[in-house]
Amino acid sequence: MRITVWNENVHEAQGDELVLSHYPDGIHGAIAAGIAPLLEDAEIRTATLQDPEHGLTEDVLAATDVLLWWGHIAHEQVSDEVVERVFQHVQAGMGLLVLHSGHYSKIFQRLLGSTASLLWRNEGERELVWTIDRTHPITQGIPDPIVIPRQEMYGEPFDIPTPDELLFVSNFAGGEVFRSGVTYRRGLGRIFYFSPGDQEYPVYHQAEIQQVLANGVRWAAPTRPRRNVTAIHKPEAGWFAAS
Amino acid sequence: MRITVWNENVHEAQGDELVLSHYPDGIHGAIAAGIAPLLEDAEIRTATLQDPEHGLTEDVLAATDVLLWWGHIAHEQVSDEVVERVFQHVQAGMGLLVLHSGHYSKIFQRLLGSTASLLWRNEGERELVWTIDRTHPITQGIPDPIVIPRQEMYGEPFDIPTPDELLFVSNFAGGEVFRSGVTYRRGLGRIFYFSPGDQEYPVYHQAEIQQVLANGVRWAAPTRPRRNVTAIHKPEAGWFAAS
Amino acid sequence: MRITVWNENVHEAQGDELVLSHYPDGIHGAIAAGIAPLLEDAEIRTATLQDPEHGLTEDVLAATDVLLWWGHIAHEQVSDEVVERVFQHVQAGMGLLVLHSGHYSKIFQRLLGSTASLLWRNEGERELVWTIDRTHPITQGIPDPIVIPRQEMYGEPFDIPTPDELLFVSNFAGGEVFRSGVTYRRGLGRIFYFSPGDQEYPVYHQAEIQQVLANGVRWAAPTRPRRNVTAIHKPEAGWFAAS
Amino acid sequence: MRITVWNENVHEAQGDELVLSHYPDGIHGAIAAGIAPLLEDAEIRTATLQDPEHGLTEDVLAATDVLLWWGHIAHEQVSDEVVERVFQHVQAGMGLLVLHSGHYSKIFQRLLGSTASLLWRNEGERELVWTIDRTHPITQGIPDPIVIPRQEMYGEPFDIPTPDELLFVSNFAGGEVFRSGVTYRRGLGRIFYFSPGDQEYPVYHQAEIQQVLANGVRWAAPTRPRRNVTAIHKPEAGWFAAS
């Protein structure tokens, strides 16, 4: 399994001290380090906005089974060409995990056909992540609830299409709720959105969060060869009728 | 529209003073009085466990478009024959609203094929009922969130099948979340489960709760003639092939 | 209710004799004439690709409750600006019916985040449209199946997201099946895709098809004021915690 | 993985020559032999109606990861006690595959809360089984469509709840369609219904059908320890509030 962890890497590149105190190797570095021991059969690389073509060239994507996406303040700096390239690879079967403020990324909005807007408030309040679907591989081995001591609040209404599967719902101390783990299929690709994780709190260092991400990667990995969904067979008249 | 509000009426019949302080005319009486002004075209009757055949004779059900069901401590006293009768009418198109602790009623378990078990705790804590589906007729005109000052907590995991539609999710002050408004179809019938409402708190006197129930009744009301779903057409061989 | 029937109107404008033999007033004219008697409370207007801004100005869309969309060979000629405008109105609550080869329209692909590719073959074969969801208002009063004597075949795999509701599935004489009636929600808007209807066959003159379209319009019509889903409330810290 | 293939075994026990010509070792024998080479890590046993407790004792079920169920003319002879036992094991996490005319079995109706009625006609017509969900593990490696030369027709309306996942839809030469592969979750258990397979036709000898069943078994196998879903935690007041 070949995994690419993408991060806009802007807080880090700007030298934000709070962010760097939690993530000295970048959020991408922390995510990669967190899931690596749980996915021993995986090759994990990272890529960032600052790389040529944001590190997401055709070659890189063609060699990626699952892409993880973290972005926050630089969504607009991601080139439309790269977004379209990722979109096509998802349609063809590449798995995609969209993380936290990545809900507002171009690629997530493009795949959902929705704004993905939500309520938010950053007061470092407690988030409890409750499992809704106890039969799903992504929720396997995850404590119910996950307790995140301090977090940014994301709340409903979350403007997303009805998910294919609702895996987690969060409670925030301030009173809100949020569909914090949802899945979608687009083309031959599987998509998992998971909201816990913020640059100001050390969420990606929690073992339970790392386990969810590793489970998500395994779930999203393609199980058949990648192919262009539009390259369809046009049956000739009477072929089936004659059989 | 013809509505029947069913209540086991046991707390009331036993003279429970707390319950009677909130519901001197019974929970069924309060629900009926609450929705009546919102459903001016409706005939509303009530029925209770203590009535002959629990007040749910074949004639009553045949003349009921939507049945509301409230039960708590006497689920086992409901006769299997009456449960089966209600089941058949739902299959044939009668609407059903299952309320609060009715999640453990025989009829709800029978329709879902699930235990409908859940977490619970009764400490009179605040419940916030958030709207998830903003396009649904049941959520129309409902404040987001509904604030219920004191309530029994119902929490996930709620052991129900994946709902056809997820309308509301509640936050409880103690930290839990709950899918408090969900819909299902069974046969030709529509089912709406709504959890707010308890015998110890005056929830059914809140205008927003009454509006949700009235919206639910309108949504669940059948739009086509009631009929036996098993009385199917068996097409003769070649009928379609020849057409 | 204010309805706008949009048609690219290219077959007609090019003087295609077969198309004009079925639809002398254009496909838009036939659709509008077909649903008008079934929607007596509606104002129905039409718009085409050739109109300034394709007839879909901000003023027209702001005064449209439900938009019907028919396109086939000129999807690429629809300006991105108009597509974006329609997209925003759907998010804000406008209903949308996408018809037949409109599956490949920019607006449908944009709303679904999918290619909407499918199998097809045009041999004028029989299509039978079977009702799957018998409780839905769109299927009310519709014969099961609808028999369309001669049609273009559309077949699975249909590359769309899992529908919110699956209403119709078609059988084609050549052996294929197709999810011919599906619904989605995006933002506050409701979307209904219905595949029967082609420029080479007089499908839109069938009474059952007209009834499905009229039912679809009633279902998709907004039930609350149109508003920008991104104009959200950002709750202040402690507001709910303090209540 | 421990698999139990259950068959009522009545056609066979009665010496039905047509059935025995296809299935000299019984339908259960043919299914077990068909999936065994595809599930090399599995222990496969069979059980029939005629065995004590129908071969489905508490010990057998406790040692079964996935149960396959085939029944046709003897549904009423299955004891309610055994049905309840199977029901409880599914809730606790045992996987279940329901096959063909098993749609009318007590256990399927009990789990769905539906009649599971359908159209049918037995004229030995061609069935084409089309894949709808191309991302699902059950459809992996399956030709699209599967061609079954002669089959009993099962048609819509199929009176089932909205499936969690729609995997296959069939076309019949006579003109009908049918949701021939659907999944559900109940409690911690996964359920897969697959309609191809009949006692009068050698369907279970087709390699593609065997592959679907093997894929279904792998998908339905539990991924966590079996446990009673009603044995829930009742959180004490203030526990979460205090954390």
TrEMBL record, chains A, B, C, D:
Location of the ThuA-like domain: 28-220
InterPro entries according to UniProt: Class_I_gatase-like, ThuA-like, Trehalose_catabolism_ThuA_prok
Protein name per UniProt: Trehalose utilization protein
